[in-house]
Amino acid sequence: MRHYNPISATRPRPIRGGYIQTPGTDTTVYDIDWVAVERAINTPGCRVELNLAEKRAACLLMLNAGFSPREISTQLCIYQRQVERWRHDGKPLAIKPVEQRVCSIADCNEGHRAHGMCTRHYDESRRLAKRQVAA
Questions:
Q1: What share of the chain is helix, strand, coil (3-state, %, to 5)?
Q2: Is the confidence at residue 85, as pLDDT, over 60?
């Protein structure tokens, strides 16, 4: 009977470049939620639902940090072939903020910050949610 040694790829590996930080200070740019991208990259075993643009951004950031296509496909739940396509397509990340978006609350024309709201309305909704949980 043949004895098989455990495969070394099954052991968790430390993140190579330390904490990978996303570019810029805005939380959302175009269709990319940078907070979700950061969470998906830096939390091993984390299964964050990302849209296609967010997966591409996370993939390119991880490639720049030195991850292999196999590790990226495992972490982001995408095909390894897709990682190779994004690596070779040559398109840069879209990092410029979108100026057209405004707050989704009626009669508020301030700039969009997160979750479709401006900073003031987003902070108010967070405070209200904390009060409802505490009650």
A1: 45, 5, 50
A2: yes
- Residues 6+ away with beta carbon under 8 Å from 120: 110
Locus of tokens 């949980």: 133
Pair 37, 123: CB distance under 8 Å: no
Give me the residue label for tokens 């095909």: 79
Checking if the pLDDT of 80 tops 90, the result is: yes
Contact 43, 20 (CB under 8 A): no
Is residue 49 over pLDDT 80? yes
Q: Are the C-beta atoms of 55 and 78 separated by less than 8 Å?
A: yes
Question: How does DSSP assign 54-66, residue by residue?
Answer: HHHHHHHHHHHTT
Cα 4 versus chain centre, distance: 37
Neighbouring C-beta atoms of residue 62, cutoff 10 Å: 25
DSSP H or E stretch at residue 28: strand 28-29
pLDDT over threshold 80, residue 64:
yes
